[in-house]
Amino acid sequence: NAGVTQTPKFQVLKTGQSMTLQCAQDMNHNSMYWYRQDPGMGLRLIYYSASEGTTDKGEVPNGYNVSRLNKREFSLRLESAAPSQTSVYFCASGGEASNQPQHFGDGTRLSIL
Amino acid sequence: EDKVVQSPLSLVVHEGDTVTLNCSYEVTNFRSLLWYKQEKKAPTFLFMLTSSGIEKKSGRLSSILDKKELFSILNITATQTGDSAVYLCAVEQAAGNKLTFGGGTRVLVKP
Predict the structure, then answer these.
(1) Environment class of B71 (CB within 10 Å of its CB; exposed 0-12, middle 13-18, buried 19+)
(2) What are phi and psi of A20, to 5 degrees?
(3) Using beta carbons and an 8 Å cutoff, which residues of A are at the interface with B?
(4) Which among A95, A99, A106 is the nearest to B42, CB-wise?
(5) Which of A31, A39, B14, B83 lies 20 to 30 Å from B95 when distance is taken between CA atoms?
(6) What confidence score (pLDDT) does residue B51 get?
(7) CB–CB contact A45 B99 (8 Å)
(8) DSSP-derived pairing of the beta strands A74-78 and A64-68
């Protein structure tokens, strides 16, 4: 019953450092997504992957890169972290068929000093 | 630009009250509207609405979509403290299955 698993749960970085957020799903979904959530702004789509081997930009892609490693795993990389990237990051999967909602992981709380 | 607006931003009620949350949208290539409940961690799925005028119901929660007027409401009757959460509305586009979220409504139910 794991669903969507994100690691790490918390991270503090200094400006300019790099890191990769990991996401894995065990529901055999083709589509996976990365969102960020800032206070009062709901969730905004950073990147998504409709299937293994494909990735596309969402609403706020600047400063991020992604890798769809295989069907299960979709990682988000910050090459040079900036304070504006302080946020809670959510990974999701699913939603590719009608009446199939996206399912979310528990999030990664990232602070950049 | 695609837009989803939720109201009110927040509300405080007492147990047993009824709550009505609003979601209006302007999105190209509409496919469906979804409601999620977010407590401390992951948003959890409540409803998906694709057809106008059809009510979806689960226990004390219900939701309806008006595709002509471009809005949806989520009702919670006989509220309990466990209903305290942020409720998120999202609209799904047909292309790429992308979700556009509203800012959420924070509901606090007091005993």
Answers:
(1) middle
(2) -120, 130
(3) 4, 31, 33, 35, 40-45, 48, 50, 56, 58-59, 90, 95-96, 98-99, 101-107
(4) A106
(5) A39
(6) 75
(7) yes
(8) antiparallel
